[in-house]
Design a protein that fits this description.
Blueprint: E1 3-9, H1 12-27, E2 31-37, H2 41-50, E3 54-57, H3 66-91, E4 95-98, H4 105-113, E5 118-122, H5 129-134, E6 140-143, E7 156-159, H6 166-169, H7 175-186, E8 196-200, H8 207-218, E9 226-230, H9 236-242, E10 249-253, H10 259-265, E11 268-271, H11 275-284, E12 287-290, H12 300-309, E13 314-316, H13 324-336, H14 338-345, H15 356-366
Parallel strand pairs: 1-2, 1-4, 2-3, 4-5, 5-6, 6-7, 8-9, 8-11, 9-10, 11-12, 12-13
Helix pairs in contact: 1-15, 3-4, 7-10, 8-13
């Protein structure tokens, strides 16, 4: 295979895995082309270009919600099919890989009408509705995790794992080195001898976590841990004030492109359970308190969290059950026996699939 079209619609959870596959494919001498759609398409195109990956922006697709929304979606999809057919004729890929979401539907149908083999990847333990539909005419589906709704998949499927960035997949930083790098970058003075708690919310929202975390941590009593809280855009100042009277060492940042350093330095991670996050936690084998994003489609983050926790490496707390006291007691249980929880975290290693991008490309090549 020399030319591969990759459709990355919607959120970063679809784009970054697709970009990782594209980078892997280009590294093997292939020519990938990303097909982008949604409100972040132009920014994603710039990110891809910085990595030397070509892309094309497709017409935006409205979400198929409600009767009017479905009619509008069908009208836009028909337009999308014809515009994508032209782009596919120009690029002439030997296969098209759809990374999920309703943005993938029109390009996949366009590929089908041109006789281009369609493959799918799903990033969650619960396969999405769009991918279940596309499975009716796809050659193969690659899955990040074992599917909880396998009965709805109409094509062959294989668990390949979730593609992650190469600096995540290949990172081998020890905690001491990672702490040293963070201290240099952040101007902090974290210790290698004390547990470091890493808190972040992910791309889809952290408000529920951000609101309860400061008080829950301040309830821990004597200083016996240190904290990095990745607040998300626009939340740093509010959290700085919330943590201002804390007795433990902490650092609040809005975001970072170098998550591999933070994972390597952390002992306990408190976060959402998006597909990429669960895949990354598995690679670094970190004990995690997972708080699924409550508005995720079909509650798919609940299923992702269940998958991770099945290894013994995590605890799931639903946001509707998340109180300051519950969060505080869960953290306290960890801090009482950090070595014991570190042993539990090692169970996540069996879930790790750092070579997912390569496995997906092999799967496509083997089914052409």
């Amino acid at each position: 295979m020399e030319r591969l079209a990759i459709v990355c619609g919607g959120t970063g959870g679809h784009f970054y895995p697709g970009l990782s596959i594209a980078i892997e494919f280009k590294g093997k001498g292939g020519h990938p082309m990303l097909f982008l759609s949604g409100r972040n398409a132009e920014e994603q195109a710039r990110t891809a270009s910085a990595q030397g990956i070509d892309s094309r922006i497709l017409p935006a697709q409205p979400p198929p919600k409600g009767l009017a929304g479905r009619i509008n979606f069908i009208i836009h999809s028909i337009k999308g099919i014809f515009s994508t057919r032209s782009l596919l004729k120009e690029f002439s890929p030997q296969a098209l890989l759809a990374m999920g979401s309703f943005h993938s539907a029109a390009p996949a149908v366009a590929a089908r009408t041109r006789g281009i083999p369609v493959f799918i990847h799903d990033g969650n333990a619960r396969v999405g509705k769009a991918n279940l539909f596309l499975s009716k005419f796809s050659r193969h589906m690659a899955l990040s995790f074992p599917p909880v709704n396998a009965e709805g998949i109409k094509c062959k499927w294989t668990v390949t794992g979730m593609p992650v960035r190469q600096n995540i997949a290949s990172c081998n930083l020890k905690k001491a080195e990672a702490i040293s790098q963070l201290n240099t970058r952040l101007g902090s003075d974290f210790s290698t001898e004390m547990p470091l708690i890493l808190v972040f919310g992910g791309s889809q929202g952290a408000e529920g976590i951000n609101q309860k975390m400061p008080e829950a941590l301040k309830m821990q009593g004597d200083e016996k841990f240190q904290l990095i809280h990745i607040s998300g855009a626009g939340n740093r100042e509010k959290l700085e004030k919330a943590y201002a009277d804390s007795t433990f060492k902490f650092k609040i940042i809005e975001s970072s492109p170098d998550m591999e350093i933070f994972y390597s330095a952390a002992d306990l991670v408190i976060c959402r359970s998006g597909g990429s996050t669960v895949a990354e936690l598995s690679i670094f084998a970190k004990f995690a308190i997972l708080i699924p994003y409550p508005y995720a489609t079909d509650s798919h983050q609940d299923d992702n969290a269940d998958f991770y926790c099945s290894s013994g490496a995590g605890i799931k707390i639903l946001e509707k059950e998340l109180s300051v006291n519950k969060l505080a007691s869960t953290i306290a249980a960890y801090l009482e026996k950090p070595a014991e929880f570190a042993e539990k975290a090692s169970g996540a290693k069996v879930l790790a699939r750092p070579d997912a991008s390569s496995e997906i490309l092999q799967l496509i090549d083997g089914n052409l």
